[in-house]
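REVIEWER CHECKLIST
Item 1: Sequence provided? yes
Item 2: Single chain? yes
Item 3: Sequence as submitted:
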Amino acid sequence: MRWTLAVVFVLLAAGAALCMGPAAGVGAGTVWDVLTGAAGADDVGAEIVRTVRMPQVLLGLLVGAALSISGVLFQALLRNELAEPYLLGVGPGALAGVTAAAFLVGGGAMPGAWARGVAAFLGAIAVAVIVFSFARRGGRRPAVTVLLAGIAVGAFVHAIATGALHTLQDWHHVVRWLLGDLSLADYEKVAVLGGVLLLGGSLAWVRGRDLDVLTLGEEAAWYTGVEVRRALWLLGGVGCLLAAAAVAQCGLVGFIGLVVPHIGRRLFGPGHRGLIPAAALLGAGLLVLADALSRTLHPPQGYPLAVVTAVLGAPVLAWLVLRRVGA
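Item 4: Structure as written out by the authors:
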């Protein structure tokens, strides 16, 4: 029953997002005609749904799923409920990779989808290695130390990357991208992120049993036969890959990777074979709803997506911190 409700939630969220937008007269009726094939080829409203809203909603679903699975992985590997891609510096690292690609490949402009994806992944991996290297103490990686190192390194990298992006020719487009933007979605971006999500999500799900054991500690995992170092590198790399792919396609969208894993654990339990697909569904639905809200609050420009997710997610972060302090 819970799985049925999760799927229905995603479908309803996607349907609602398809019906919402600044274009007047493009509502549920037009969307229904497009989905059923009744809309004509010369119908302007139907074309808006097909070429603007549909790829935007699909990309939002994939971004939400990718960030949520990445959050699940980092929280399990660090055994810390406050861990998420951006707090660990992975998001800013991906941003730095895209910035480097803009200068080296794009000639001072934002590069294509594939170039952004590869560059974002390399940047995310580089920053993750730096963060975990600083956080190492006698062969261990204390979660609090990792988080503090991630915040410090991430803030530094984000500042440098943003300053470099300020010199690009299309700065106005860069600003929208920095604040999370799905408005420039197209089917190429959907295909790129969909392939990454399929690969990364499958690897995470297959290693779900290892994640269950790793949450008990590295020593306990070692006694159960898990190759701890290999699992940490593999699953940490998958987390970086998913977060980097999301950043490359829509910019920095925070808090989804932090909030959704907690919702998933409360509704579906802590077992990662169930939590990973559950988080993907919940994150997909929540992100497209946040995007739909961002488009309708201040038409026609709308509010940046990252602003909406921050307003929704910051209270949850504060509650988690206060709960840890009071524990």
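Item 5: Key structural point noted by reviewer: The chain has 14 helices and no strands.
Item 6: Recommendation: ____
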